[in-house]
Amino acid sequence: MRKPIVAGNWKMNKTMREAESLAESIKVDLGEFTKVDVVLCPPFTALKTVSDVISRSAIRLGGQHMSAEPSGAFTGEISAGMLRDLYCNYVILGHSERRAYAGETDAGVNEKTLAAHASGLKPIVCVGEKLEEREAGITQAVVEAQVKGCLSGLDEEQVKNTIVAYEPVWAIGTGKTATPEMAQDVHAHIRAVVAVMFGDDLAKTVRIQYGGSMKPGNAAELISQPDIDGGLIGGAALDAGSFVEIVKAAV
Ligand code: PEP
Q: For residues 58 and 65, what is the distance between their CA atoms, to the nearest angstrom?
C-alpha cells in the first residue's frame, strides 16, 4: 500500500562531471524498474546536470537543504522556488548534519517544511536520536518531540506528501546500523505520533525511511519491517551498483 522510497543523499560530494556519470550509471542500471520511488539529492552545484540526465526517467531530484524564505538577502541560501526551477520534487530537511553544523532546530525545520509544501516540494524530514540519548533510554521521547515540532500545522494533503526519515545519529556514516527490530520500534512510534497528530488513516499513508549505514547487505531486512518504507542513503549512494542494489532490495 505504501510505495517504497529510496533517496540518495550525496552530501558534499561529486563535481558536475562525476555527478553526471553517477546519475547516468544509476539510470542505466535501474532501467525500467519503477516499483520503488527513487530520488537523487546531489549538491546544489550538480542539480542542473543531474536534472538533465534523469529528465526522461522515473528518477526524481531532490535538494539537500533549503531556506524557508522565498527570496532576499540571505547569502548562501537557496529557496524552494529555486529548487522547483531545477525540477526538484523533493528536499531533505533537518538532516542531523545540518542540525549539528548549521544549528537547525525543529521550529526552523517546521517553517521549511511548510515552505516546501507551499512550493510543491515533498519534504524528507529527518529525525533521530544521538548516542547519549539512546543510552539514556530517551530515544522515543526525543524522536516524538522532533516529529511534533517539525510536522506541526500541516494540512491533510501536506501530511500525505511528507516523508519522514528516521536516522539515528550514531548510525550515520559510522558503519553501525540499528538492528531491524530497533529501527522498527522507532518507526512504529513515529507512525503512532503522526496518528495522534493527524489521525490513523493519514498516518498509514506517511512513508518513513530508515537512514544510517544502510547498504546492500542490510537493506532488505530493514525495509521488510512493517513500518520501514525505504531508505535515505548516504555513503552507499555514491556508488551506482550499491545504490541500485538497495533500491531493488526495497520491494
Ligand atoms: C545520511 O547521511 O542520511 C546517511 C544515512 O548516511 P550513511 O548512509 O552514510 O550513514
A: 22
- The CB of 211 under 6 Å from ligand 1? The reply is yes
Which domains does the chain show, CATH number per domain?
5-249 (3.20.20.70)
Q: How far is CA 239 from CA 25, 104, 165, 200, 236, in A?
A: 9, 29, 21, 38, 6
Identify the DSSP state of 46: G
Q: Which is catalytic among the residues 104, 129, 133, 167?
A: 167
Q: What digits encode the pLDDT tens for the residues 22-77?
A: 999 999 999 999 999 999 999 999 999 999 999 999 999 999 999 999 999 999 99
pLDDT at 147: 98
Q: Is 20 exposed, middle or buried (0-12, 13-18, 19+ CB in 10 A)?
A: middle
Q: Is 187 a catalytic residue?
A: no
- CA 95 – CA 166 distance, rounded (Å): 10
For the chain, give percent helix, strand, coil, nearest 5: 50, 15, 35
How much is the average pLDDT of 112-131?
98
pLDDT at 1 over 90: no
Q: Does residue 213 line the site of ligand 1, with CB under 6 A?
A: yes
Exposure letters 215-240 (e unless 16+ CB within 10 A, then b) = bbebbeebbebebbbbbbbbbbbbbb
Give me the catalytic one of 95, 117, 187, 189. Answer: 95
Note the Cα 45 to chain centre separation in Å.
Answer: 19
